[in-house]
UniProtKB/TrEMBL annotation:
Annotated source species: Pseudonocardia xinjiangensis
Protein name according to UniProt: Cyclase family protein
Coiled-coil residues: none
Entry-linked Pfam families: Cyclase
């Protein structure tokens, strides 16, 4: 029996579940707020072209206006200066859009400290319990932040000192980029870097090291709580925007029931 038929049978029998890791995309979707003098992304907008009316009697359609980095989205190397000679989002090999994924759950730590940072030791301890990180796969970092995703203020969690959202330490970002076998980092927060990463050295180290190493980012993921620590397969579908630095993406996980 061909393996693909086995997959279809398992999906039909629901012995394999499809978990949607994507946040709904709408005008209220939180977007990263960079401080002046830096420019910022635009909120997502739908602009109606027609809706079964004189502009189009039988059809409803819209223009969309969005940043590449709005909502659940896929970061590619060219997004950062360290990866400027790397892939744009249209150049990501299709074979890499389906990959194994592991989940590192630090939701409890992030609930206690919104500036919590994942360190290499945390990953090493996870590996001693669950085995090595997947070669060519995703490290999905669960912080529980998806619960805030429909409240932009809570999700961005900024005060007069800037945003306070959990992330990855500089040392861990460098290690994930240069030592770990994963092809990318997925997070629940607005971007792959911690809210305080603007003050790190280098600033935004996940972007700087991971994209500089030709790796990828997935952001604003949801439902990581529904995935096992190991064994999920993630399908991430960015739009192949020619020359693009990233794209809103539909991200799904296949999980054995
Ligand atoms: O890639 C992103 O969505 C992101 O987080 C970002 C975008 C542009 C500048 C800084 C950052 S930190
Ligand atoms: Mn991004």
């Amino acid at each position: 029996m061909p393996v693909l038929q086995d997959l279809l049978d398992a999906l039909r029998a629901r012995t394999i579940e499809v978990v949607d890791l994507t946040a709904p995309l709408h005008s209220g979707t939180p977007i990263l707020q960079l401080p002046p003098p830096f420019a910022n992304a635009s909120p997502f907008e739908l602009t109606e072209i027609s809706r079964y009316d004189e502009r189009g009697p039988a059809w409803y359609w819209n223009d969309i206006h969005t940043s590449e980095h709005t909502g659940t989205h896929f970061d590619v190397p060219v997004h950062w200066v360290t990866g400027k000679d790397g892939e744009d989002v249209a150049q990501v090999p299709a074979a890499r859009l389906l990959a194994p994924a592991v989940v590192l759950d630090f939701a409890a730590e992030s609930a206690k400290d919104p500036d919590f940072l994942l360190e290499v030791d945390h990953v090493r301890a996870w590996e001693s319990e669950h085995g090595p990180l997947p070669d060519g796969g995703w490290l999905l970092y669960r912080t529980g932040w998806d619960a805030r995703s429909e409240d932009a203020a809570a999700f961005l969690n900024a005060d007069d000192t800037g945003p306070h959202t959990p992330g990855i330490s500089v040392e861990c970002a460098k290690w994930l980029a240069e030592e770990a076998p994963v092809m990318g980092l997925g997070v629940e927060t607005v971007g792959t870097d911690a809210g305080g990463a603007h003050s790190f050295d280098p600033p935004f180290p996940c972007h700087s090291f991971l994209l500089g190493a030709g790796k990828y980012g997935l952001t604003q993921l949801q439902n990581l709580a529904r995935l096992p620590a190991t064994g999920a397969v993630v399908i991430a579908g960015p739009l192949p925007i020619v020359g693009g630095s990233g794209s809103p993406a539909r991200v799904l996980a296949l999980v054995e029931s």
